[in-house]
Design brief:
By secondary structure, the chain is an alpha/beta fold. It has helices spanning about 15-25, 50-55, 75-85, 105-115, 155-160, 175-185, 205-210, 210-215, 220-235, 235-255, 260, 265-290, 290-310, 320-325, and strands at about 5-10, 35-40, 65-70, 90-95, 100, 120-130, 135-140, 150-155, 190-200. It folds into 2 domains: about 5-210, Spore Coat Polysaccharide Biosynthesis Protein SpsA, Chain A (Alpha-Beta Complex), CATH 3.90.550; about 210-325, no CATH class.
């Protein structure tokens, strides 16, 4: 089998997940024997009925197979990992239950790239959102390396390099997964044809809560710390120091965004800086051995991304901010 689509399901009922499954039905130019959908219920009472699932079986008017698993509740990261362990295809793709494919040649596009071969395929995707006037808006993510959406992975590559989902991560878990995967390969292909839609849901906390990132950003630091441990355990010093450097400057420029400088959000900023202080104390020696040319390249890339995200100037210089971080008193 060429591709298995791995879908965690929690509170998404049949009416919600139907959009994703229905977007697979009209796929053109592929052999449906080459695909399978694995759905994992994360310990929820919202079950998908056998009658509903059988409606997509190959012997009906629909063409592909679905496997449905029921797990104990451990969160989305753990459910994705459990589904991966059930997979057997050459490639895997993680989809959210409330999303969908954008066109009827999405899987055809993936299979064409598979003919060339890749460890990771990064496809452009659309994010559906709402304006402040509650009108529908769409944002195009180009060559995104943060979110799980629109990405396909060679399964054996993930196994060989022990790349896994960290169940300890209740937020920003896909950011860590992608960082880890990218660290182990240069065989990454990019597709500039959007094939996937990250849909809007009113009850999705990460989309509907305007302060979700502020409340959960410390998990970005925590996730990077897990990645550093993984790199050092595998004697990958160069990877570890590069990731530390990237994280340090990413946090610095992130905290220069207007939303983080707003006095209303001081509580969230302080929380992130406390987390960062602990991280910095543990890893500053790695930062100190990053070659100047590597550091400069990382700073340039991080700053360019920050500018695109609204950072027009730094309130403090980097050195001033580090002195501030070092002055933070930590509780025992």
């Amino acid at each position: 089998m060429k591709l298995q689509i791995l879908v965690p399901q929690y509170k998404e009922d049949e009416n919600v997940i139907k959009g994703l499954l229905d977007s697979i039905v009209p796929q053109q130019g592929i052999d449906f024997n080459d695909i399978e959908v694995l759905i994992g219920n994360d310990g929820s009472d919202t079950k998908l009925s056998e009658e509903f699932l059988l409606g997509y079986e190959p012997w009906t008017c629909y063409p592909f197979n679905i496997e449905y698993f029921e797990f104990e509740h451990e969160g989305i990261a753990a459910t994705r990992q459990k589904l991966f362990e059930k997979a057997s295809a050459q490639y895997v793709m993680y989809c959210d239950a409330d999303d969908m494919f954008l066109s009827n040649i999405a899987l055809f596009t993936i299979f064409k790239y598979a003919e060339v071969g890749f460890d990771i395929l990064v496809c452009d995707f659309l994010e559906e959102s709402r304006t402040k006037h509650n009108k529908i808006d769409y944002f195009l993510h180009r060559q995104d390396t943060t979110f799980i959406h629109g990405k396909v992975y060679r399964r054996e590559f993930l196994i060989e390099n022990h790349i896994k989902w960290y169940s300890e991560m209740p937020a920003h878990e896909d950011n860590v997964y992608n960082m880890l995967a990218r660290a182990y390969t240069d065989n990454i292909k990019y597709c500039d044809t959007p094939i996937y839609l990250w849909r809007w849901r009113e009850d999705s906390i990460c989309r509907s809560d305007p302060k979700y990132v502020l409340k959960t950003y410390h998990y970005v630091i925590y996730g990077n710390a897990l990645l550093i441990v993984d790199a050092m355990n595998n004697n990958m010093l160069n990877l570890a120091k590069v990731q530390v450097c990237n994280l340090v400057y990413t946090v610095y420029y992130t905290l220069n965004k207007p939303i983080w400088l707003d006095p209303e959000n001081e509580e969230y900023r302080n929380n992130v800086e406390v987390w960062f202080r602990r991280y910095y104390d543990r890893h500053k020696q790695l930062l100190g051995i990053v070659e100047p040319e590597v550091r400069n390249k990382i700073v340039t890339l991080v700053k360019q991304r920050a500018i695109r995200e609204g950072v027009l100037s730094e309130k403090y210089t980097f050195d001033e901010w580090i002195k501030h971080i070092e002055s933070i008193e930590l509780e025992d």
